Task: structure prediction
Amino acid sequence: MSQITPALWSEILGHLRDRHDGLAQGWFSQLDPPVLERGELTVSTPDPQQHRYLLERCRRAFAEAGQLAVNRLVSVRFRLAEPVEQPSGRAGAPISDEPPPLNKLYTFEQFVTGPCNRMAHAAAVAVAEAPGQAYNPLFLHGSVGLGKTHLLQAACQRALEAGKVERVLYLSCESFTNDFINAVQRGALNSFQYRYRHVDMLVIDDIQFLGERERSQEEFFHTFNTLYQMQKQIILSADSPPTAIPSLEERLVSRFGWGLVALMEKPCFETRMAILRQKAELRGLELDDEVVYFIASRVDSNIRELEGAINKVESLARLAGGTITLALARQGLGEQPPAREIAIPEIQEAVMRRYNVRLADLQSRKRSKSISLPRQVCMYLARQLTRHSLEEIGGFFGGRDHTTVLHATKTIGQQRQSDTKLHAALEEISGELRNLRSN
Ligand code: ADP
Ligand code: MG
Result:
């Protein structure tokens, strides 16, 4: 066992700073140079907070930097050393890397249900309350930001709280494969297998990444079988159903479907509103209905984006030192204030100039082409450029009924396809009106 040279250590630190700006911390350079033994770099710190930071965020970065410096594959272990000041003669007992702790906010209580996620939610509750019995495995899939991780962690916490399980292992697929690769390199496969096969509940997030790893798939296959036979609960999540995960072995595809495969979809409008209200309440934010309505109608991709929108609006409100108004919400979501609407009289004026007709003509019942064409153009543009209904538009043309307006819009819409002159005229008039509006 040998400590690496200070020169090598500072080279590693250099790589970390250069390649992981934002991750590298000032205190890195105060750590003792790590020990390198049989391809494993052991980084020690007596500070639990530093240790946690390293464990949670730095494994890959340290492994990369270590590899660059020593020019061969290294794995990394972070060890919590006993504080040096302690008058204890013992060497710090190594504490093995623990999986990241569960997020306290990811509970069932804080999960808003709607048609998009009701089935996934109910299934997660069911397996948390009867692990190994309800559905095994439970496989949740859906695109990013729709609450898969939240439900997985909620199931873990509920099962633990209810005393249904003792040993729960929640981790990302990436951690699983890294752990496996490390174990192989260290010749520590037995303890790896022991660790994964002696749990009551194994929960792996983003399992789609397993497809890329042939040997990890093999290992996971055996882990799965062992746990399944012992009726231990397995919960998995992915961005697609098992059958659509690239390069996933057939025997895993079929096993993943043995229990329940539940899809999580994008939340509908009402669910988005409910989620916004809940998130606002959690932060002690007061959001008017119109603000909630506005955000829910503009952000419809996923729930992470909804949270991002609240964050932006909240920080803007804080800067402005006040309440969250609709204008602030618009600004937060990067919207321009609404431009002034184009008014029908403006359209009529533009058309009158262009076709040299009078308002009385537009409002008359005259059917000559020279009058009916500009009248129909007016109606068409009113339909295109304003939000007035057919009836309302009719009202501006001597009280014509909605079928007349509809007929006009259809006629002009069709004619412009073949009549290039008409098409050009329509473009010009609309351009003119839009300019008018933005000034
Ligand atoms: P995924 O794992 O599917 O990418 P996450 O579970 O990370 O999505 O969810 C993204 C964010 O949205 C998290 O902060 C989560 O708490 C929140 N979230 C997702 N679904 C809901 C929901 N139904 N109710 C409340 N918050 C939710
Ligand atoms: Mg996730």
In short: Residues 34 and 43 are 5 Å apart (CA to CA). The longest helix spans residues 420-438. The two ends are 76 Å apart (CA to CA). Confidence is low (pLDDT under 50) at residues 84-96.
